[in-house]
Amino acid sequence: MKYSLTLFAAASLLSFISCTERESGVSGSAGKPLIVVSVPPYAGLVEKVGGDLFGVLTLVTENDDPHTYSVTPNELVKVSGAKVYFTASLPFEKTLVSKLSETKGGPALVDLLAGLETRNFSEGEHEHHDHAEGEHDHAEHKEDADHDHAEHDHEDAEHKKHADHDHDHEESELDPHVWLSPVNLIIQAELISSALQGLVSSEDEKATIRSNTAALVADLTAVDKELAITLSPLRGESFFVYHGAFGYFARDYSLKQEAIEINGRSPEPKQLTDVVAKAKAEDVHVVFVQPQFDQTSAEALAEAINGKVVAIDPLAKDVIANLRDIAAKLKAQ
Questions:
Q1: Which residue in 86, 135, 256, 275 could disulfide with 238, CB within 3.0 to 4.6 Å?
Q2: d(CA 220, CA 322)
Q3: The domain over range 20-229 is classified in CATH as 3.90.190.20
Q4: Strands 55-58 and 26-27: what pairing?
């Protein structure tokens, strides 16, 4: 009996440790400066830029809904002890950033939306990037990447439109899904690089970060050109998604995103009827869904148009592979 109790206690301890790590989402943290990010795509960027020099705490996992996510007390303690928190204007971050701003000795707050051309959820087509040239001028963003991130003002009026746990989107609300654009990711990679270089003293470590950044920027530039070619036959066409997270992706490649949600809520029957009519008129046969949301409305739409539901995940950590996956599924629809 004593032997069985010992095994049970050991198993319980291992289970507790596993759950704690899974909750915190910490990777490679042992004895290294801790960096905090909101969502997995930014964890992927930090790891590519910083290599194994830093530990990364990801608050929202790929299975969480960022709109309803709430930081646990255990996570708040860990965030407070981090060196840098890369904020991204996710809904839950307003309260968290406010708390951290009042905490002495807390992490430096770096705004990953600094220098980006952001959009609101209500916006449709924008002036698109000229992929025919195949080049992007990123030099103009260098000055933004080198500014003093620790002193950045997170009370910017454009970023104050979020309710902490409210999944309803006002039409004028900022769309924070900027990481679904290679152009934005290149600017963010430079911001991350600048902040991480400020945390190391060794010239060799700084050189490693710069080298990693250059390689990442090259990969992002290449995938941007690749996606422009892949999606060029679809210019001007619509794709239907449950949650409107792909506005920046659509903007980059001259596509039209149609969200099933109405201001962040599942559509009423009359609204769904209107969406069905639009999908039929545009000869749409695929409805894209994200695993973080209820798929009932998407499945109802797919059935009504004699189509199918296809999963695409805006929160995948390997953002370059995910951008390719999204493009391939759009082309195949």
A1: 256
A2: 12
A3: no
A4: antiparallel
